[in-house]
Amino acid sequence: MTHVIACIDGSDSAPAVCGYAAWASLSLDAPLTFLHVLDKRQYPTAANLSGNIGLGSREHLLDELATLDEQRGKLALEQGRIILAAAKEWAMAEGADAPESKQRHGDLLESLQELESEMRLLVIGLQGESSGGLSQHVGSQLESVIRVMRRPILVTPTNFRKPEHAMLAFDGSATTRKGVEMLASSPLLKGLPIHLVMIGPVSDESTKQLDWAQKILLNAGLTVRAEIRDGEIEPTLHAYQKEHGIDLLVMGAYGHSRIRQFLVGSTTTNMLRTATSPVLLLR
Amino acid sequence: MACAMLFCAIYCLEILMLHSLKQTWFSNIRGDLLAGIVVALALIPEAIAFSIIAGVDPKVGLYASFCIAVVIAFVGGRPGMISAATGAMALLMVTLVKDHGLEYLLAATLLCGVLQIGAGYLKLGSLMRFVSRSVVTGFVNALAILIFMAQLPELTNVTWHVYAMTAAGLGIIYLFPYVPRIGKLIPSPLVCIIALTAIAMTVGLDIRTVGDMGQLPDTLPIFLWPDVPLNFETLAIIFPYSAALAVVGLLESMMTATIIDDLTDTPSNKNRECKGQGVANIASGLLGGMAGCAMIGQSIINVKSGGRSRLSSLAAGVFLLLMVVFLGDWLKQIPMAALVAVMIMVSIGTFSWDSLRNLKKHPLSTNIVMVVTVVVVVATHNLAFGVLAGVLLAAMFFANKVGHYMDVSSSLDEGTEHRIYTVTGQVFFSSADKFVAAFDFKEALDKVTVDLSRAHFWDITAVAALDKVVIKFRREGTDVEVLGLNEASTTIVDRFGVHDKPDAIDQLMGH
Questions:
Q1: Is the ipTM reported for this complex over the cut 0.85?
Q2: Which of residues 243-262 of B touch A (CB under 8 A)?
Q3: B168: burial class by Cβ within 10 Å (0-12, 13-18, 19+)?
Q4: Against a cut of 0.90, is the pTM above it?
Q5: Which A residues 179-198 touch B at CB under 8 Å?
Q6: Domains of chain A with CATH codes
């Protein structure tokens, strides 16, 4: 529970991930580690559709595939080193203190799970290499990472801007109440004004809950501004965000079961898809 | 219907499990779909050929191949491996079909599935570690020989046209890929089948075609319970066949899984594969198909064509059924010579030619294991017997080798007529005789000390041998003292626990 771990690949998000990772590492006063995972399964497979097998096909196929993997592996290893070196440089320029770097073979999720015990905050780009610059697209591995990891995750857009205003979407549920407590105990957002926003009709109940949340954050020495707004959740949040120049969203992630999401879709995925600012997901 | 519901249930389970859904299904969609088509094209002739071996209508093998390929895509433990109706299994069914008919084959298929699921729950997949490399090679070679031999009936007592067609078919299969551009885009076995069918139809050759071999599927498979009496007699008939089918099916599946693990450099879940093979066979039996298992040749074709995930097996099964149901009339026209050519290709591709080259390099014991496996299989037409013979032989050779790691040295203290025997190394059934023979009972001595502190006693035979030595000395009037027996005999205990402690090796080597 000590390190800020930032996932880096060769995509456009990489510089932004470095920037946010450096910012988080400085705010939390935690050491920063860059992680690059070499996942062979992401490479395209070579295909020979001739469909025949002849003398020693099996042995030759093994040699062929091994040679191909070897060539790609060497290239990928070298490229990974360059990416990590560049990431370190970027992070140092942003003021991070002696970041470390790690390169692992295997799959992103497994590598992250191995590192989970030393992870305090995970920083990851909204889109990875395989997204190919499609807007409104959540990276292919991001959702499973968010689902499986039990640590806070900062999902970054493609451009870095130092966060000035944070917004916490609050609905009184157990997940968001826990989120409020986590924020209060963390040094990450010290010094940023936090906008506590609740969506729904104003009622005694909701005012009471909002007051509770505001008090907790104020006691922790944070600057808080609380507001209740009526309307549809996502558009209202986005409108508020625009009005107040919010550049960091804070929210709980994936409260519902997988089955429900399969049928009705998930608020978290939708928020990520439409967000233009970084999103801090509290687990 | 039941099948569809099963798929839905399994699919929902998959969704639950699923960070790996993307990885095991949709990581390589284009490659998997293309490979699926190539595999389906090669599966059709194989399924027909294997049905003919088993003595049933081609539709039994075709339904089986569809069903197994589709079900195993969901429940198997090795993504990218192709399972369907296979020659190894077909050969085991011949007498059952001949003596009792198709319904008993379907019942035996169901029971085989149940046994395989049981094997999966008992984690018998891990028993594969006792199957040495030379046994695997022998198995693969024997399989290739069996597939080739199964083609011989189509090549005996026929006109020269058949030989010419088969030779032309093989020529197309191996030469067409060298045609620039299209050579590597169109599967050459498909070109072979289409070309030979066209020739046979235009020239009007009077040679055997697939249509002559029995009924082809004209509908989607339907659910049917085998029409056999549910009594002990039925069980007595089918059980020996089911057991053999289950064992051979799992053996070939596990070996193929290992080959695909190596080719793709990814791990597989062998026990899940065992259960998956069982589920697939039950589904096949209920839809009127015969038992099957993983196919080495087809799985290699799949990997070569770029198939890597579960989607490739699903695609192969679905394309197979679509082609069979909608192209049935054309399928009937395919000359058997074209199928024979494809099957000879599969047999050539399955055979491990390196093993012949390696005969010179490898030690004699390894070669004997390999050759014995092949010979037993070819003689019995049952791969399970061959593997059993191979595994036993390999174990005996190993025991014999380790038995050499035992030495007894001695020194005499002349003043007191006291001899000290020091035993070093492994004492067990294979080395017990050598152990006893190392003592000189005829020497007149006052006292003998047997120092076992650098020896390991692995079984009761070793203890009995020590008892014999002690008694013999006592009968000669010699006092016997045994040192270090406790340390030496810790290895006899079945749950000899040192292997999971960090100092295991020190303890084994040190004392």
A1: no
A2: 259, 262
A3: middle
A4: no
A5: none
A6: 3-42+75-156 (3.40.50.620), 166-282 (3.40.50.620)
